[in-house]
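input
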Amino acid sequence: KANFLLEQGFSIDTGATTTGQAFARQSYVGFSGGFGEVKLGKMWTAYDDISGAANSAFDSALAPQNNVWYSTGYDANPANGIYYGSPNMGGISGAFSYSLDEKTTGRGAVTALHVKYEGGPLYVGFGYQNQNPYGPEAATKFIRLNGTYDLGVAKVLAGYGKVDYPGTSSNATDWELGVDVPMSSTLTLSGCVA
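output
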């Protein structure tokens, strides 16, 4: 199959773009088949694919990990990207992404990968992202390990993350334990400690 996606955020009351650039979210072309999927353009990194998979509050803005631990300098969907996602083999799959240097904006290359297992009630995912600045500074590194287990009456959520900022003492480590409890077919309560 040949695939494409163009996403644009805009202000509903004025129609203005939310970032000042057209197709600022995802904009890519690609192809997919039994070999997996290849994307070229501006898409979420392989790391970002799994970073919120075990977040409570459905990985929304209310989830403790969002806009807290990685908000400084995290590049979720850099431009000029190449992405490969493998097919699912017995519940195991993975992905790799690489975004070329943006010399005009001062951003260096962004390399990311993830490996995950999804089988029955169990999900486990590991992600890694390396963000290079354009220049001699060291890279910022992001690591995430998360998992969920669906007990039927509730889903248990667990996540651990670490960010290494180069040349500073402001490295960050976080963890979260949560639970999603379905109250009906249309209502689920979600909570956590972090």
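quick obs: The CA atoms of residues 55 and 169 lie 26 Å apart.
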